[in-house]
Amino acid sequence: MISRIAQRLAILLVAVTGSTACARFTARIHDVTTDTEDPPVFVDVLPLRTGARNSATYGGTRVAARQRASYPDIAPVDLVLTPAAAAAKALVVVSEMGWALVAADSTAGRIEATATTRVFRFKDDVVIRVRPRGDGSRIDVRSASRIGNSDLGKNAERIREFSRRLRALEKL
């Protein structure tokens, strides 16, 4: 019994220490988007964010500058698919990633979901915007934590993984 408690305390200590060390190397932001000038807007997840410490309103130029400095690779996904086909593929990725789908509004070209982190079970909200672009579609993603000044890079990681999976599905 005591050894299990000691083991859990040791794991917790390592996790907290690791998180603190990781925070030194990541941007102190909790909201990451592929479009810092016109970020996708949360609509349907807003009732779920009641009481959240972080606002659902994007932080503007200050946050955008920090994001560009720390995550210069975060960019929109351009697909050679119609917006309807791109949205359908995006919904597949949302499901594959285990996010809880909140809404899918095909008229607005918006998908909203909630991702839950593994260890601490934090809730982060994701909005995906699909727009026509030339002969295809442009997909923008925004991932924002409900609590915390820094997400320790989790939102950028989530957007990268979503983008990678979506590009892979485009070819199928």
Provide a descriptive summary of the structure in words.
With about 170 residues, this protein is an alpha+beta fold. It has a single domain, classed as Alpha-D-Glucose-1,6-Bisphosphate, Chain A, domain 4, CATH 3.30.530. It has four helices and six strands. Strands 1, 2, 3, 4, 5 and 6 form a six-stranded antiparallel β-sheet that branches. Strand 4 and strand 5 form a beta hairpin. Helix 3 packs across helix 4. The longest helix is centred in the N-terminal third of the chain and has 22 residues. It is globular. The protein starts with a helix and ends with a helix. About 5% of the residues have low confidence.
Order of helices and strands: HEHEHEEEEH
Helix content range:
25-40%
Oligomer: single chain
Shape type: globular
CATH class: Alpha Beta
Average pLDDT confidence is 90
Low-confidence stretches: 18-24
Q: Please report the distance between the alpha carbons of the first and last residues.
A: 52 Å
Strands, count: 6
Please outline the major beta sheet.
Answer: 6 strands, antiparallel
